Amino acid sequence: MTSDADASLPRWGGITEPMTVATNVVLAVLAFVLGARLGYGAAAQGSASGSFFGLGMVVGAVAAAFGAATHGIDPRVDAAQRERCWRAALYTLGFATAATTVSVAFFTARGWIRTAILVAVGIKLLVYLVSVARRPQFRLAAADHVATLAVLLAAALYAMARWHAAGMGWLVAGVGVSLIGVLVQVRHVAIHRHFNHNDLYHVIQMVALYLFFRGGVLLVDR
């Protein structure tokens, strides 16, 4: 994803990067449906870990919707609006990863350790938001995303080894697929000019979302 004005961007009608917009919209809808379903079920069962995991997916859906708007707005027509949507996407991504990490605190810890994790999440979110406000760059969101995946992977492996917790295999698989998506983004792997690295990344994240959903419905608070 990029917010840089580029006259060579693919266009269809008045929409720039139409395939990227389309895959972003599908990703947003899928994240919202799975996240809402997960969150609703977890709330009914009194599972804070599942509720926050679902919340992270729903907030991620909002970020994907802002991403779709960013890509769809022609920078030559309304660069300011494109920039606002871009910043909104970055800010929202920070809240999505924070919600996911809060979930980790509930399915891996309790007592003062859980409190310490929650405080750390709050501090990290604040630092991220300030950083994005100063420099709205994708690399900040990418670094935050990778850090969250690393925490989630470590937590899932820990819960699997200590309690043989259900659903951890799904989470580990989801992290693995997400990291493949990150690699695709970083290396700009593209199938075609009209199906670039952003589009491929979105498709890979759809697979990861399903895996996270399967693991999320099995989360249990400690």
In terms of DSSP E residues, the strand content is under 5%
Radius of gyration: 18 Å
| Unreliably modeled segments | 1-5
Please provide the ordered H/E string of secondary-structure elements. EEHHHHHHH
Sheet/helix structural class: mainly alpha
- N-to-C CA distance: 38 Å
Arrangement of strands in the largest sheet: 1-2
Percentage of residues in helical conformation: over 70%
Query: How many individual β-strands?
Result: 2
> So what's the overall shape?
globular
Main pleated-sheet profile: 2 strands, antiparallel
Give the count of helical stretches: 7
The averaged pLDDT comes out at 94
Please indicate the count of domains: 1
Write up this protein.
- The chain is an all-alpha fold.
- It has one domain.
- It contains 7 helices and 2 strands; from the N terminus they run ββααααααα.
- A two-stranded antiparallel sheet has the order 1-2.
- The longest helix is centred in the middle third of the chain and has 30 residues, at 79-108.
- The chain is globular, with a radius of gyration of 18 Å.
- The N and C termini lie far apart (38 Å).
Note the main attributes of this structure.
222 residues, mainly alpha, 7 helices, 2 strands, 78% helix, 2% strand, disordered N terminus
Brief summary:
The chain has 222 residues and is mainly alpha-helical. It has helices at residues 18-45, 48-72, 79-108, 111-134, 138-163, 168-187, 197-216, and strands spanning 11-12, 15-16. It has 7 helices and 2 strands; from the N terminus they run ββααααααα.
